[in-house]
Design goal:
Elements lengths: L2 H28 L5 H33 L1 H38 L13 H12 L2 H10 L6 H30 L4 H24 L3
Helix pairs in contact: 1-2, 1-4, 1-6, 1-7, 2-3, 2-4, 2-5, 2-6, 3-4, 3-5, 3-7
Length: about 210
């Protein structure tokens, strides 16, 4: 494989893992009971989902092309790209606003009534899916560009490793920021909600300007 192809794959992996980094940062900010085991679970979940989505997008177009031909496959790829981008936008926007509103409500409660945010496996998987779904469009693009049926596995491996590593960095930074806030988890929730809302907007903007 030529070096520039490998470099493009690495850059794609970094770009895709940026979403996971943002959400990992939010988790580090808002979960009060994060430890090493939970951090590894979050990072691995984000990494696996972020890696599987491009694979799913690639093989979806591949199967459509085999059954219906290249022209139909290309059109199906375009439709999938549009749908998944707006679906990712909707999910991230919903989660972001939900976190933001809940944190504002918590700020208005009396101290004894406040509820802290705890680690949730279900929530982590939902977050992982929300950040990874736009990578389905990347898999469609890979089918038309960088990848073959052989190199797509290199894509998957690199994306998994990069997302896992960058998510751990995000979790660590989130925890450090939380310490600076001295346990004011309502403020961290507001920051996390804003991050997710901005991420939702960025998913759409980056898609249409070709980033």
């Amino acid at each position: 494989m030529e070096r520039h192809i490998l470099l493009e794959i690495i850059l794609l992996g970094i770009g895709l893992s940026a979403d996971a980094f943002s959400v990992a940062l939010t988790d580090g900010l808002t979960y009060i009971d994060i430890n090493k085991k939970k951090s590894l679970f979050i990072a691995l979940t984000f990494g696996v989902l972020q890696a599987l989505m491009p694979l799913a997008g690639f093989w979806l177009v591949e199967i459509v092309e085999i059954i219906f031909g290249e022209v139909i496959g290309a059109k199906a790829g375009e439709i999938v790209s549009q749908v998944v981008v707006w679906l990712a936008f909707a999910l991230l926007l919903f989660i972001g606003f939900k976190m933001l509103i809940e944190s504002i409500i918590e700020m208005r409660k009396k101290v004894e009534e406040k509820q802290q945010r705890h680690f949730s496996v279900k929530e982590v998987i939902i977050y992982g899916f929300a950040t990874a779904i736009d990578a389905l469009a990347a898999g469609v693009a890979c089918h038309a560009g960088l990848s073959s049926t052989i190199t797509i596995w290199l894509h998957v491996s690199i994306i998994l490793v990069l997302t896992f590593s960058i998510s751990l960095v995000g979790l660590f930074l989130g925890k450090q920021i939380m310490r600076l806030l001295k346990g004011k988890y309502e403020i961290s929730g507001i920051i996390g909600g804003i991050i997710l809302i901005l991420l939702a907007i960025w998913v759409v903007v980056s898609h249409y300007i070709g980033l």
